[in-house]
Every structure is written in structure tokens, then in C-alpha cells.
Amino acid sequence: MARKTKAEAEVTYQALLDAAEQVFLNKGVARASLEEIARTAQVTRGAVYWHFQNKSDVFKAMLERVRLPMAEMTENAADERTGDLRTLRNLCVYALQTLVKDQRHFRVYKILFHHTESEHGLRLQDEMTQESIDTLTRFFSNHPPHSSLTASQAARSLHTQMLGIYVDWLRNPDAYDLSAEAECLVDTVFRGLCPENEPFQTNKENP
User: Fold this and answer.
1) What are the pLDDT digits (tens) for 120-172?
2) Domain ranges in the chain?
């Protein structure tokens, strides 16, 4: 059999991740199998092993497709030279609205928070939590929050409140219009984080 071209391999790789989203969402990560992912992608099981060692690798790659762009934006917001409170606030609004408008983000985060029973998936949640808190702590170290909060306290407060919105809305997306309410929810959090000498004002502009 002729070796696949790089372009053909990439098409198969993306098809497998698309199939994994579908299978994980329907069956849960723990009950899904590589055979079913291959069948859904209409490829052989050998094609799966060409790209991934096991189901954990598939899950991680699926998550990275939506995680990496947002992680890069968060890193930029934490940069001492370019980041500020308004940038971080806008990023949080953007993240919530993207969760509503981008079906891939919706599927992957619903899988992560509501269809992950595997030890590997739960461990990835812990890793993401620590990464988020570390990045936000660096942000608030460069841009001090309200004087009643340390940088790490501000970071954990923002992380847990954003996480709560994700988990709550993904459990029942019909409960309320998250896209419409994103700014109000985020601004409520940021008013408590803002330094006393920089009163937080709402701003309708998003990145």
C-alpha cells in the first residue's frame, strides 16, 4: 500500500477527531472504543493506530483542538506588557459566547465536563485547572486585583466562577441565553476583582 501523503494523513486525523467527538458525546468516554471511532470515521482500526496510541491520546488531541487557541489568548492576556483587566474581561466574554456559537467547543466541553468518567479525562481536567490558575495568578501578579485579594485568590475566584458557568450551562443549554447574558455574568465577577482605584465599567466591545 502506498504511503499516505501528508495532506491525506491530516484529513484522516481530523476525521478521527470528528468521529471521537460524536462517539464520546453519545456514549461517554469510558464506554467508547477505538473500533467505534474508526467505524464512525469510516476508516480501519489500523488508521487509528497510525495517528494515536490509545483512546487517551484521541481524547487529549480532541481537547487540544479547542483548548490551544484559547490557551494562547489567555497567555497573551497575562503578558505584563500587553494584558490588562479589560483584555481579560473581554476574553472571558468571548469564551462564553464561543461556547454557544461554536458547535465544536460546545461538544468538546460538554464531553469534558459531563461525559468523562475515565481517570485520564479527570486527570486532564485537573491539569487544565492548574494551568488556568497558574496563568491567571501570573496575570494578577502583573495587574494587582482588589486589595482584599492576593493574586492567587483572584485567580482561583475567576477560574471557579467561569468554570461554574461552563458546567451549569452545558448541563442545560436551554435554561438561559448564555450568549446574551455573557457580559452581565462576567462583569459581575470582574467588579469584585477590580482594584478600588479603577472602578470597573461595562464595555460592549469584545475582542
Assistant:
1) 778 888 988 999 999 999 999 989 999 999 999 999 999 999 999 999 999 99
2) 6-193
Cell of 108: 468538546
For 172-205, write each residue's pLDDT tens digit.
999 999 999 999 999 999 999 998 877 666 554 4
Grid coordinates representing 15 are 476525521
Alpha-carbon distance 76 to 70, whole Å? 10
Q: Would you give the DSSP letter of residue 2?
A: P
User: Rounded to two decimals, what is the model's pTM?
Assistant: 0.85
Extract the C-alpha cell encoding 73: 489568548
**Quick count: other Cβ atoms within 10 Å of Cβ 80?**
11
- C-alpha to C-alpha distance for 58 and 48, rounded to whole angstroms: 9
Which one-letter amino acid corresponds to residue 67?
A: R
Q: What is the DSSP letter of 174?
A: T
Q: State the cell numbers at 44.
A: 480501519
Read off the pLDDT of each residue in 23-49 and give the average, rounded to a whole number. 94
From the options 3.10.420.10, 3.40.50.720, 1.10.357.10, 1.10.220.30, give the CATH code of 6-193: 1.10.357.10
Please give the Cα distance from 54 to 52 (Å, whole number): 6
